[in-house]
Amino acid sequence: MQTCEYCLKIENLTVAYGKRVALENINLHLSKGEFHAVVGPNGGGKTTLVKAILGLIKPLSGNIMIFGKPQKEYLKENTIGYLPQTHSTNISRVPLKVIDVVLMGCMGYRGLTGYRKDVIKRVEKIMDMLEVLDRRNNLFDDLSGGLKQRVLIARALVSNPELLIMDEPTVGLDVKAQKDFYTLIKKLREQLNITIIMVSHDVGFVFEYADTVVCVNKRVHLHTKHKDELPKDFFNRLYGYDVKFVDHRHGDPDA
Ligand SMILES: Nc1ncnc2c1ncn2[C@@H]1O[C@H](COP(=O)(O)OP(=O)(O)OP(=O)(O)O)[C@@H](O)[C@H]1O
Ligand SMILES: [Mg+2]
């Protein structure tokens, strides 16, 4: 049993693509068991930060600790649930490695019946939580964008990760689907007792639903729990234009 209160401790992290520095001297401590949102302008380095946490890119310098362990050590023994960013509203890219594709052959034409009963039970429990169990026999390609996202989250959760990272999962969803999505994520966090890091451009939603908000634009510009703590014109400076908050409970402009 871990006793570490932090899910993530990042110290002096710098990441570059060739000569272009994408993240510069990032320091970030994220508590365990909370819903953390990462916001910031396009090209600000949000996906780069996620990939660095997942060990998918090698930083120039810095140190990452995950649940109290050095990143390499943690990743050797644990899986982080990951929903990669897709660049289209037609979400059909499933993050499969070649070995995953080959391994699927073990299932044979009988599909899930090739798995042990306890595995199927766990998978069904997760699917039920994400409200996609009744779609189990649908073709993935035939599902709506929102349902596809939930299926992919179920996929990321079946390995029982302590940490789930989602990179812009609400892209392409309408406002109602976005609201449902955030409500579901909050429920998931409570029921599974996991830490969630979610990259998003939904500034209004994240301040309503997330426990903390991290603003990244090459550096970490803000790490806060309340939008009242935001300096005036903060988003204007960060994004280069004025960001209006919409209170999604009532649909009225909030600030
Ligand atoms: N594979 C790559 N090779 C070279 N440059 C890259 C690569 N990936 C990202 N970059 C650059 O690094 C910077 C940060 O990119 P990143 O994708 O992390 O931003 P982001 O905040 O996720 O943006 P978005 O909101 O558009 O998803 C950008 O300037 C981008 O052009
Ligand atoms: Mg990105």
Describe this structure in words.
The protein is an alpha/beta fold. The chain has a domain of 163 residues: Rossmann fold. 31% of the residues lie in helices and 26% in strands. The strands form 3 sheets. The protein has a 6-stranded mixed sheet with strand order 6-7-8-3-9-10, with helices on both faces. A hairpin with a 2-residue loop joins β4 and β5. The longest helix has 18 residues. The chain is globular. Adenosine-5'-triphosphate binds next to β2 and α1.
| Number of continuous helical runs | 8
Q: Main beta sheet, described? A: 6 strands, mixed
Query: Which ions and ligands are bound to the chains?
Result: adenosine-5'-triphosphate, magnesium ion
Write out the strand line-up for the largest beta sheet, numbering strands in chain order: 6-7-8-3-9-10
The arrangement of helices and strands along the chain is EEEHEEHEHHHEHEHEEHEE
Low-confidence stretches: 246-255
Keywords summarizing the entry:
single chain, 255 residues, alpha/beta, Rossmann fold, six-stranded mixed beta sheet, four-stranded antiparallel beta sheet, 8 helices, 31% helix, disordered C terminus, binds adenosine-5'-triphosphate, binds magnesium ion
